[in-house]
Design brief:
three-stranded antiparallel β-sheet, OB fold (Dihydrolipoamide Acetyltransferase, E2P), 144 residues, mainly beta
Length: 144
């Protein structure tokens, strides 16, 4: 007899969009990266909020390129999330060029030996295995 509550080990957890984050997930579903920005003071923020943390103004989502610079990274030598394979793989913290003040974290698909703080990266949108969602993932920028 199988326990219906058992969590599959071959599928990663799926996102749970809420009213503050639905714009982020909707943009990713369309193949774009969009981040939360205040309509009044133009401050970028991630994770998204309904009101700006700087001025309490209303927020919305604006597209960004996802190009940026590695601010820090770790190399995982074992699977950290079910369904995403084992190690080694790189999780990077990236300063985004066109969203000052935002650091986005995610998987950086590159050999760990090739990754350095200060490396240029670009973002691509990829499906989350086992579900209808998409997520950002980084790759080393072409040409440097």
């Amino acid at each position: 007899m199988t326990d219906a509550r058992a969590v599959p080990t071959d599928v990663p957890p799926q996102p749970l969009p809420d009213p503050d984050t639905v714009g982020y997930w909707d943009a990713l579903a369309g193949g774009d990266l969009a981040l939360c920005r205040c309509a009044d003071c133009r401050t970028w923020m991630h994770p998204p909020l309904e009101r700006c943390r700087a001025c309490a103004g209303p927020t919305g989502f604006e597209p960004v390129s996802g190009d940026g610079t590695v601010a820090g990274f770790i190399v995982m030598h074992r699977a950290s999330v079910p369904g995403l394979g084992g190690g080694p793989h790189v999780i990077a913290l990236v300063d985004l060029d066109d969203a000052p003040g935002v650091r986005l974290s995610g998987r950086l698909v590159a050999p760990p030996a090739d990754v350095r703080v200060g490396a240029r990266v670009e973002t691509r949108v990829v499906p989350v295995p086992g579900g209808p969602f998409h997520q950002p993932e980084f790759a080393l920028a072409r040409g440097g």
